[in-house]
Specification:
This protein has 345 residues and is mainly α. Strand 5 (313-316) and strand 6 form a beta hairpin. The chain has a two-stranded antiparallel ribbon. A two-stranded antiparallel sheet has the order 3-4. It has 14 helices and six strands. The longest helix is centred in the first third of the chain and has 28 residues, at 41-68. Helix 9 (232-239) crosses helix 10 and helix 10 crosses helix 13. It folds into three domains: 66-137, Dna Ligase, domain 1, CATH 3.30.1490.480; 146-229, no CATH class; 232-341, no CATH class.
């Protein structure tokens, strides 16, 4: 008879098996999922919007500043040529310092649509209001300013005639004032009442209300300033002559010289002849005893710093206005023959 088999005994305790099985079949919790904090976009958007608003406000302030400007300083003369475009006018105004920005000017005029702008001579100030500039250029905010250009070498009578061409002004009144002694130059010799040779040739702007006396005052003041700036007093003292003597020589040089390179040599020739008590023999002295021809700065500088040399004569030998210079009578006669052969004398 077969005996029932005995169950095999595990080599491990029974209670240990049950515990392990229970552990093996126990459901474990799922791994913890990584959680992300939601981004806080609100503050970033708010900061960006604030920055953009600030930039826009600054841009608007800058544009408004360019349009309205801050007018200051003395008057600025501006000449607008005929047919100038709005853009070219803006560039011209910007170059003179009247407006601050050409791009803003173009945008402003596009918005305002001012229509045709006038040509002519105008007076503005630095950093003008663009609205005021447009009003003036449209002809509604400024009376006519007249440009008065005095060429170098002009006589006082020629200057008076130019002044007389301006409506409301008189050449005769100008001459009477110039010879009356009521207006003085610091370089005027004692006892002289004439301003011959003491008026600076330049471009002047005659504004409404300017009279002959005011215009002449401007011209004499400009001459005094120029003559002082180039050192007439000091140079005259070193040369042993009066400042007015230097101005007289400068006036003669202004009349005689046709090219700049000759000015210093002509001045030296005049001084050399005066030192030798020789007659000048200059056409300018026929009309001129005291400087009829108002000298420009180049002629005055030539009179102050004449080119070193022994010359006593000069002759026009070229149609361009160039002179040749001589020391002896024989050299002079030879130059005269050359000039005659060219039909220059």
């Amino acid at each position: 008879m077969t005996q029932p088999s005995r169950p095999l005994r595990s080599s491990q305790p029974e209670d240990e098996v049950y515990v392990r099985d229970a552990f093996q079949y126990q459901e474990l919790p799922p791994p913890l999922a990584k959680t992300r904090r939601p981004r806080r976009r609100g503050p970033i958007l708010l900061a960006t919007a604030a920055l953009l608003a600030l930039l826009l406000a600054l841009a608007a302030f800058w544009v408004d500043r360019q349009i309205h400007g801050h007018p200051h300083g003395g008057p600025i003369a501006v000449t607008i040529p005929k047919g100038a475009s709005t853009s070219s006018i803006g560039s011209l105004l910007h170059g003179k310092g009247v407006i601050g920005n050409t791009v803003v000017w173009r945008l402003y005029t596009m918005v305002k649509q001012p229509g045709p702008l006038q040509s002519g001579d105008f007076r503005f100030r630095h950093d003008e209001n663009m609205g005021h500039v447009l009003t003036v250029l449209k002809g509604g905010g400024q009376a006519t300013v007249h440009r008065l250009t005095i060429p170098e070498g002009s006589s006082l009578r020629q200057i008076a005639e130019k002044v007389g061409n301006i409506p409301g002004l008189s050449a005769d009144r100008f001459m009477a004032i110039a010879q009356s002694g009521t207006i003085h130059s610091q370089f005027q010799p004692p006892g002289s009442t004439s301003l011959e040779g003491l008026v600076f040739p330049d471009t002047y702007f005659v504004e409404p209300g300017d009279n002959e006396a005011k215009i002449l005052n401007k011209m004499v003041a400009a001459f005094d300033q120029m003559a002082s700036s180039v050192g007439v007093q000091d140079a005259a003292a070193k040369a042993g002559v009066t400042p007015y003597d230097v101005i007289t020589v400068a006036s003669l040089v202004e009349e005689e010289a046709k090219v700049d390179d000759d000015r210093g040599m002509i001045a030296r020739t005049i001084y050399n002849r005066l030192q030798k008590n020789m007659k000048l023999g200059i056409d300018a002295t026929v009309e001129y005893a005291i400087g009829t021809h108002n000298a420009g700065q180049k002629s005055l500088e030539a009179a102050l710093n004449p080119t070193p040399g022994p010359w006593l004569y000069y002759v026009l030998i070229d149609p361009s206005g160039k002179h040749a210079f001589a020391t002896t009578d024989a050299e002079f006669e030879q130059l005269v023959r050359q000039a005659r052969a060219k039909g220059l004398v």
